[in-house]
Amino acid sequence: MARLEVKNLHVSIEDKEILKGVDLIMNTGEIHAIMGPNGTGKSTLSAAIMGHPSYTVTKGEILLDGQDVLEMEVDERARAGLFLAVQYPSEIAGITNAEFMRAAINARRPEGNKIPVMEFIRKLDEKMAVLDMPEEMAERYLNEGFSGGEKKRNEILQLMMIESTFAILDEIDSGLDIDALKVVSKGVNAMRGENFGSLIITHYQRLLNYITPDVVHVMMNGIIVKTGGAELAKRLEVEGYKGIRDELGLEVVLDED
Ligand SMILES: Nc1ncnc2c1ncn2[C@@H]1O[C@H](COP(=O)(O)OP(=O)(O)OP(=O)(O)O)[C@@H](O)[C@H]1O
Ligand SMILES: [Mg+2]
């Protein structure tokens, strides 16, 4: 079992504090969901875990099996088993999707032990079939000209190929049609198991109907204000965030600048 711990995490962007003490513990074998209003810091949390340079951790810790993640470079974090499906995947011209995934897999293997080409192709075919992706998508430049939904599906393909230990999926459901939502969920559910954990950032219960979370967190104004089971997401769908605010006596905080 592996464990990802976020302890009292404070993160600033250009001197503005966005995360104000986030605590979160995730084990492999678990699927967690984070829900919360726009601008509360969900993507900031994922960027800080992956080591995005624009996000400054001013206080707190991130530990992966007790190892200090904040001390690691971005590529080390990826090699240590962390994966982020970003909210807005970028297009990279000049490198094909397949080349990118092969390089990513090899970067995580010991020196001189590259994945054999046939094994790679077999695996790619298998995972693309699960995700109902046409073969030609593997040979196209990474995300270039991909539709919004195709990019999201491709993030899951990368995850399934790389087989990271912890995957943060930032709004993997946004912009997906109903069939694509089912397919992406099938991909994540296929990863489920004792060697995999995922933190799913979403606005909608809809995704969680397909991927049942073990734990649901609600983030507001840069902290996790409430943690519960799958029923918490269902409650949010009915009550909106007002119910939680009223219960906890929270005010709507408007940006002071
Ligand atoms: N590069 C940046 N420069 C300035 N402010 C930023 C930057 N990145 C994020 N922020 C601010 O940090 C706050 C948190 O943003 P974040 O993207 O983490 O929110 P979120 O919870 O993911 O929202 P959403 O649900 O809309 O995706 C927002 O007020 C946002 O404007
Ligand atoms: Mg976001």
Automatic annotation (TrEMBL):
InterPro entries tied to this protein: AAA+_ATPase (IPR003593), ABC_transporter-like_ATP-bd (IPR003439), ABC_transporter-like_CS (IPR017871), FeS-cluster_ATPase_SufC (IPR010230), P-loop_NTPase (IPR027417)
GO molecular function, one term: ATP hydrolysis activity
Signal peptide: none
Keyword Nucleotide-binding set for record: yes
Coiled-coil segments: none
Domain ABC transporter: 4-246
Organism domain of life: Bacteria
Gene3D superfamilies attached to this UniProt entry: P-loop containing nucleotide triphosphate hydrolases (3.40.50.300)
Similarity field: Belongs to the ABC transporter superfamily. Ycf16 family.
Protein name: Fe-S cluster assembly ATP-binding protein
Organism name: Desemzia incerta
